[in-house]
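Researcher: We're teaching a course module on how sequence relates to structure. For the next exercise, students receive a sequence and then see the predicted structure as tokens, so they can try to spot secondary structure elements on their own. Here is the exercise chain.
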Amino acid sequence: MKKINWGIIGLGDIAQSFSEGFHNCDNARLLAVSSNKNEKLDQYKNNFKLEKGYLFNNYEDLIKCDDVDIVYIALPNNLHFEWILKCIEKNKNILIEKPAVRKLTEAKKIEKEIIDRNLFFSEGFMYRYYPQIKKVIEILKTEQLGKLISMETTFSNDLLFKKKFFFFKKKRKIKPDSRLFDKNLGGGSILDLGCYTISFSFLIASLIKDLDLKNFKLKNIKKKIGSTGVDIEAEADLIFENGFKSKIKSSFQDYNKDTVIIGEKGSLLIKDAWHGAPIIEKKIGREKIKIFNEETVNLYSYQIENISRSLLKNQKRTSFPGFTINDTILNTKALESWINA
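Model: And here is the predicted structure for the students to work with:
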């Protein structure tokens, strides 16, 4: 079977998790990686059986490599736009780690460039490809909840406090130069976690008949700014033209990954959409039904396989519910509004 050859620039924690996804894919292989740290290259060479000729000390050499079909950019947020454009210049297909960019003008420039060069582009919201998300879409499309009214979706990780001791929390020591807490690196809970909640809101809203996703507003915006100048907690109401509303939340000082979708007939609870929740709870009237999903070996495998399938068919976008450039433009517009409010 023909396989798509992937290259990765930036070998941080997210790239490691992503790379392990290739073990479960029949239509894709990790061919090349790039890092300015030799120990990282040696690690990947050994762990993923890479050939020495495909280990690059600088990103541009990997992008120039003719054998690489698609580049996964796993760099800090502040470097995304620069390296997206560099990949486009070399006519490379692109998967960019979320959030793709921080400005709507940048997203629109990317759209123009990839259309002009007929390139594949997608943003790395891997949860969109999970079997349980497909199950959610099936439930909503068959109108088991009736007309959709609202949703509330949260993504938070407790990064500011250590474990509880007798109901007390101890503050962690924060590194100001950490990508999560450095404003110049694109830090903050909105960019790191809130982007997921926005993207899921647009996905659910897209299932509502005759709804124009472009007509939305953000209201009731609240933010808590931490000592390093980035938002450590934020919330807002994402409101669409037909009245459908999504309350979105992100936080570095809590632990909650719940999403609740409300319809006229009932509701749907997803305990952790972002990491493959094994159980979805559907409530219709007084009846509660628990839907068990298949176990996932690696959460990135579904994304890699879907994108590789598209490339093998010479398609320039992922199949629904994968993330397209149109989704990136919507997401970036909402992100920019939320951050700049």
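Model: If you want an answer key for the exercise: The chain has a mean pLDDT of 93. The first strand starts at residue 4 and ends at 9.
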